[in-house]
Amino acid sequence: MNGDLSKLCIHTITTKPWKIEEAAKNYAEAGIKGITVWRDALEGRNISQTGKMLREHNLEVVSLCRGGFFPSKDPVKRKLAIEDNRRAVEEAAELGTSMVVLVCGAEPDQSLEESRKQIRDGIAAVIPDAAAAGVKLTIEPLHPMYADTRSAINTLAQANDMAEALKSPWVGIAVDVYHLWWDPYLEQEIKRCGKNGNLSAFHICDWKVPTTDMLLDRGLMGEGCIPVRQIKTWVEEAGFEGFNEVEIFSNTYWKEDQSMFLDKIVKAYKEHVLYDMDFVLNGKQAL
Amino acid sequence: MNGDLSKLCIHTITTKPWKIEEAAKNYAEAGIKGITVWRDALEGRNISQTGKMLREHNLEVVSLCRGGFFPSKDPVKRKLAIEDNRRAVEEAAELGTSMVVLVCGAEPDQSLEESRKQIRDGIAAVIPDAAAAGVKLTIEPLHPMYADTRSAINTLAQANDMAEALKSPWVGIAVDVYHLWWDPYLEQEIKRCGKNGNLSAFHICDWKVPTTDMLLDRGLMGEGCIPVRQIKTWVEEAGFEGFNEVEIFSNTYWKEDQSMFLDKIVKAYKEHVLYDMDFVLNGKQAL
């Protein structure tokens, strides 16, 4: 099956066993045009040179993952988190990308309400730096099963509320199908997000049935029960024209030969994310 | 610490290693006044005699768990599910309880929208039986991490929508802190639920940090990050006067001596669910 890979992006964490240099080479050879860089992949490297290396492979650096983790009961830690987010903004600019994805954080020892307030305050504190660097702070709402320690922002409605309250061109939102697929208000909140001009990123993978690990058992698109194509249609109808970013954490796939895994990603992308022949011929779109 | 146990109910599944006869005896000896019976606990027993036995222990049978699981791609299976729910209603009446809890079900091979429609249709089909038996069908919204196979009803807002659409005195809603604690709209949806007269049940436990199993790692109240007391205040303010039902699935606790586990439940209930002295003396309520 042929397929247009011009909007395919892969997160470095998806092929975690590869160093970023190997990832870049292999993604490029597979015809992939986008890469999202996790900060651990930059360790011990000159960041601007790494950005240059990626561009030499004709890879657009879609975003840097990740900032966030603002809440804490300890005001010193909250300050350190803000500083770390400023560093992330700088690193993004050095790398040559205009987006930092935020996993906002949560503190199980305080109320979610308090954590949500600290997230808003934390992002507000970093906005001037983001503006100066030309980097968008992209709030990623996380699945409610991560509300204890990873993110107190758990629905797109919440992320929309927060982006509207912050009211800055330097704040955006990432729609990740893994976190949001279950939400009965997803379609309308995607519309709202697009209307506000806040729909900055689209992350894809699948929810395996059964899922055996809450963090590290994500599936390839088509392998689970998420209607990835349906959600893709919604984000496109809301005006999104960016990359489809494959973000898979998987102990299973990380154990495999990563070249074979990359082949599977490309195949799954063609078969389960791009519109298929049934759609082209009959105007019908599979769920 | 003293504490009023008159509103404490325990689900038979919480002390799964015990037969229902042992559970009844031990709950009663501990001063517990309510029991919710899981259907597996009734296997091989005369149901009305079992109900009589529970009442002889001065236990009120708060509900029967569980009906539901309506969605399927296969219309034959959907019909069988409706029949099974009618049986659950009969069993509840025989047992002497006026409530069946519904874990509504989900079918990963079809859209959530379709599953939600099938749930509504399934409940509607059982309402006449519920009315005839004097048994309330109580929708329990489940955590979004169960949206693949256990329930397509994942927020209290959804359950409220559905109960309002069904508009029957024989439909209610169970608020379970484990499933709903993360929801930023929880307080307002509890109010709405109470205003509608639909707040039928209140289930408690805790969300452990970290949670190592998606199904069988629930914690005792106070052991995790759920503000159980806060949510209890909300349901009471919404007019709820029923039992606080302890529903814990835990491989860890099921391995323990169940008498010691029961002591821990009673202690956790007193210390983390009932208002504590700090509240009584200072009007302050701990989160």
Could you explain how this protein is built, in words?
Chain A has 287 residues and is an alpha/beta fold. Chain A has one domain: TIM Barrel (Alpha-Beta Barrel). The first copy, chain A, is built from 11 helices and 8 strands. Chain A has an 8-stranded parallel barrel with strand order 1-2-3-4-5-6-7-8, surrounded by 7 helices. The model of chain A has no long low-confidence stretch (mean pLDDT 95). The interface between A and B is medium-sized, with 29 and 30 residues.
Mean pLDDT of chain A: 95
Q: Can you tell me the overall shape of chain A?
A: globular
> Which strand order do you get reading across the main beta sheet of chain A?
1-2-3-4-5-6-7-8
What portion of residues of chain A belong to β-strands? 5-15%
Major sheet size, sense and barrel closure of chain A? 8 strands, parallel, barrel
Provide the CATH architecture of chain A.
Alpha-Beta Barrel
What structural class do helix, strand and pairing data of chain A support?
alpha/beta
CATH topology of chain A: TIM Barrel
Q: What is the overall number of helices of chain A?
A: 11
Largest interface: A-B, 29 and 30 residues
Give start-end ranges of low-pLDDT stretches of chain A: none
- CATH superfamily name of chain A? Divalent-metal-dependent TIM barrel enzymes
Report the strand count of chain A: 8
Helix share, percent of chain A? 40-55%
* Termini separation of chain A: 19 Å
